[in-house]
Each structure stands twice: as C-alpha cells, then as structure tokens.
Write a structure and sequence with these properties.
The protein is an alpha+beta fold. The chain folds into 2 domains: 2-104; 113-213, Immunoglobulin-like (Sandwich), CATH 2.60.40.10. The protein has 4 helices and 9 strands. It has helices at residues 2-31, 48-69, 76-104, 163-166; strands at residues 113-123, 126-134, 140-142, 144-148, 154-157, 172-174, 179-185, 193-201, 204-213. The protein has a 4-stranded antiparallel sheet, with no helix packed on it. The protein has a 3-stranded antiparallel sheet with strand order 1-2-7, with no helix packed on it. Strand 8 and strand 9 (204-213) form a beta hairpin. The chain is elongated, with a radius of gyration of 26 Å. The relative contact order is 0.14.
Length: 214
C-alpha cells in the first residue's frame, strides 16, 4: 500500500508540474518574453501546451484517484467512474481560464532594454542624454521617448518623424547585448520637479528612469 501511495503521489506531483509549466508559459506568452516556455502556452502554436495540459490532467486525475481509492474499499468502482468523469472537466475549464487570465494580464510589452543613466544636458528646451543597455538576445527598435510627471502623466515627447510609419525609420536600433547613448531633444521647457523618461516602440518596452529638474 505504501508503494502504491508513493507511485500515485508521484503521478499527482508530475501532473501539477506539467500544469504549472503551462501556466507559466501562458504568462510569458502574454509578456512576449524570450523564453522557451512560451511554446507551452495553449494560446500559441504549435499548441504543444495542449498536450502538456492533457498529460497534466491525466496524471493529476490518476494520482488523485489512486490515492483516494485506498480509502474507498467498498465503493472503489463507483468512485473511480465518477472521478474519471468529473475530475478532468473540473480541472480543465478552470485551468484554461487561469491560462487566459495569465496571458491577458501579463505586461503588454516585452522588456528589451533598460535605461542605465539619465543626464540633463539642457533644461530650456529640455535635452537629455540617456544610456541604454540591451537585456535580451533580440535586436530591438527605439522610436521615441516621453516624459512622465510625478503622477505618471505624459507631459512631453520627442518629435516623431513621419518616416517612422512610412519607411520604418527608428530613432535608434539596439543590437542584442549592446549599449548605446541617445541624445533626446524634447523641444519644450518643463518646470522644476521630479520626472521619468520612458523610451517607446510599438510592442516593445525599454523601461523608464527617474530624473530631476532643479
């Protein structure tokens, strides 16, 4: 009996591990992270995640039934039949809902780089020198920058060249693993205070960093 409990317990744990990997993959898929676990998301091809979900539910069900059967000596067949019919859908539908929640509540844009330094070159009009370091293995684009005030509201932005949309022109292209320094001219003057500069690009995130205007 002890060996049987250990075996079913192992199957139960393996089922939880498979389902956990799928849940993490769903979150990373929503965040567009550069991780191999993204392929385990049920929402993305090649739909490998659905196989993991099926395998996880099967292992979880077998483990649960095997453990519980030890305590239903007089009604094992009835319990097994009901468990096999009821447990998989009771796990599957809430779990898929959880994957969807993780996918749609993950950060909208992937983190491609981080701002390492912000220096105020001039404050009238505002000119910033910004150091940027790539943190992924994928080349990325920087199309502009915005300034946020203490309440998180945008108060200034760099002029966006129309060629960004028509010709795919970028303010800068950040190769994987590289570091660059940008000079950003906002053509505006802001009152003294604390601000944050955020680099922008469609479906990419380059982070933000605080600075102070005296």
């Amino acid at each position: 009996m002890k060996r049987s409990l250990a075996l079913y317990g192992l199957l139960f744990i393996l089922g939880i591990i498979l389902l956990t990997l799928v849940l993490v993959g769903s979150y990373l898929d929503g965040a567009d992270a550069l991780s191999i676990l993204v392929i385990l998301s049920p929402m993305s091809p090649p739909n490998l995640g659905l196989w993991f979900v099926s395998g996880g539910i099967i292992l979880l069900t077998v483990g649960m039934v095997g453990i519980a059967r030890q305590y239903f000596k007089n009604y094992r067949r009835l319990f097994t039949a009901l468990a096999v019919i009821l447990i998989p859908p009771l796990i599957f539908f809430p779990f898929i809902g959880g994957c969807s929640y993780a996918f749609f509540n993950a950060p909208m844009f992937p983190m491609r780089s981080e701002i390492t330094q912000v220096t105020v070159v001039d404050d009238s009009p505002l000119v910033l020198s910004v150091g940027v370091k790539a943190i992924t293995s994928r080349d990325s684009r920087i199309e502009g920058a915005i300034i946020l005030n203490g309440d998180g509201e945008p108060v200034a932005e760099t002029p966006i060249d129309d060629r960004v949309w028509t010709e795919g022109l970028a303010l800068a292209v950040l190769p994987a693993g590289s570091e660059i320094k940008l000079t950003l001219n906002f053509n505006t003057t802001l009152p003294p205070g604390k601000y944050r500069v955020r680099l922008t690009c469609w479906h990419e995130n380059h982070g933000n960093s605080p600075f102070t205007l005296p």
